[in-house]
Amino acid sequence: MSAAAVRAPRIRPARVVLHGFLIAMAALWIFPLFWAIYSSLRPISDTIQHGYLSWPSNGLSLINYQTVWSQAELPYYYLNTLVIAVPAVVLTLLLASMVAFACTQFSWRFNLATLMIFTAGNLLPPQVIIVPLYRIYLATPIPVLGEIDIGKFAFPIFSDRGLLYDQYIGIMLIHIVFQTGFATFVLSNYMKTISKEITESAIVDGAHVLRIWWNIVLPLCRPALAAMATLLFTFIYNDFFWALILMSTGSKRPITSALNNLQGEFFVNNNLIAAGALLVAIPPILVYIFLQKQFIAGLTLGSTKG
């Protein structure tokens, strides 16, 4: 075979432009991450002396990570966040899967309207109700059940003031309310792919509705549940607004609020905050790695069906 016959395919200019654009966008997207890593490894004294756009004269070190781990008390705030995020994710998935199961596997008069109401909740910006919600939290009494001591800190189960304000459960409830609509929308689309004949056969065999939901439908929805768990945990974990507004006790706030403790009154060590932000980002990354296979399966389900 001649050399002309095995000539390499011609590269089109449009393809070169496309690849150049994608490379530029990828570099633009990851630049802040690399800049945060670089800043977190520099001493603040070196940055002040030479500026941010300079090579460190004394090398790079992990001193900022050591400082922020102890100064911001990150282990305690990690636990604070888990106390809020884990129950909120579990309850949101349970409630959303129940609504999606009822609206997709059974035919009744208001199933479509119910699904539309839950879905329409996603269109409401949560911040628009902050004033009435704040007043409701200040006026809603709850029982006082004491506190749990962990090391030198104490986790109040409910406040000594007996109000929903400044409570872990208050932050959980607001996340559950606003995330259930989105989770219901996603899970209902997934459950529509499950044949109703499975539910009907189970009912004929004498299975209770809750048993069908728990033992049959939920196992079939494992990829969608894993994908939603990853997204919900990320959304709730990254929240800063609700904890700042609906919690007054700084030691009870989640880890995103702990970064605020690193700011001084007259000086802000941005290198220290960069190190703290990178440490704070570790748990959502670990959750994604742990549920990566199920997460991708849940997102790509139905993409090849026509």
Which H/E pattern describes the elements?
HHHHHHEEHHHHHHHHH
CATH superfamily of the largest domain: MetI-like
Q: What would you call the shape?
A: globular
Q: Report how far apart the termini are.
A: 43 Å
Instruction: State the domain count.
Output: 2
Strand content: under 5%
Largest sheet: 2 strands, antiparallel
Low-pLDDT stretches: 302-306
> How much is the radius of gyration in Å?
25 Å
Mean pLDDT: 83
Number of strands: 2
Helix content: 55-70%
The CATH C-level name of the largest domain is Mainly Alpha
CATH topology of the largest domain: MetI-like fold
Question: What is the correct CATH architecture of the largest domain?
Answer: Orthogonal Bundle
Assign the structural class, choosing from mainly alpha, mainly beta, alpha/beta, alpha+beta, or little secondary structure: mainly alpha
What is the helix tally? 15
Task: Note down, in words, how this protein is organized.
- The structure is a single chain.
- With 306 residues, the protein is an all-alpha fold.
- The chain folds into two domains: 13-64, no CATH class; 74-300, MetI-like fold (Orthogonal Bundle).
- 64% of the residues lie in helices and 3% in strands.
- The protein contains 15 helices and two strands.
- A two-stranded antiparallel ribbon has the order 1-2.
- Strand 1 and strand 2 form a beta hairpin.
- Helix 3 crosses helix 13 (270-280) and helix 10 packs across helix 15.
- The chain is globular.
- The protein starts with 12 loop residues before the first helix and ends in a 6-residue tail after the last helix.
- Residues 302-306 have low confidence and may be disordered.
